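Memo to structure team: turn this sequence into structure tokens by end of day. - J.P.
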Amino acid sequence: MEFPCGHDGDPVKGQVPDTLVIEALFSSIAGAYDRVNWLLSLGRYGRWLDEAARQACDGAELRLLDVGTGTGELALRLAGRAGPGSVVWGVDCSEPMISRARQKAGRRVRFARGYAESLPFPGGCFDCVCMSFVLRNLPRPQPALAEAARVTRAGGRLIVLELGKHPPPLLDRFIRAHLRHWAPLLGGEPYRWLDLSRQLFPPAYIQDRWLAGAGWVVEHRARLAWGLVELVRASLPGQVGEHHAGRRQEWREQH
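Reply from structure team:
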């Protein structure tokens, strides 16, 4: 499988594969996804998701959304940390991924098939939206961040977990070799996209432009595993109109 290069709005020329190509790619690796992630991260994958869940949940009753939920690993962690009465949704474009997530989660998480750029929810209905290792796989990340803002209440939160751009040089060389050679060996040909997508994902200052353009205010940026992974926490300022708040409350009462 071959891929064109770059992100829209990114200094690199070209584009990430379109949504249908990405959907087919992730559907093809659903069966091996959890195992390969654990192996490639040398067992650290779960720790990164734990930190994202910790940043998202404060123990209160919350409505939480995991965009690009995959096999539901982050959504399950959100359900485990959120307060009593909380509701967690996971959305993914890949039906095989959603199917595996449902098998693992049972009734603890609700899942829906959908796309990050057009989420199947009314405006302002979530307290927090999470995206783990999703943005670099989107042909147009900016509309996805705007859509996340649309479904988040005023004062709500966004948590983004993504591969880092600037680990120390020696570690960076090791990671590139690791992803380039071991990822396809462990996960098959589709995993060649992992190294390419990391190279093409823009640096933090462009990511921050995307966030600001969608209405988010970055509160916290943390480097995990010596910069191999970065976690961003952002908030959504502003006030909700009366009609918008009414629709949100009605939906929350029904879900």
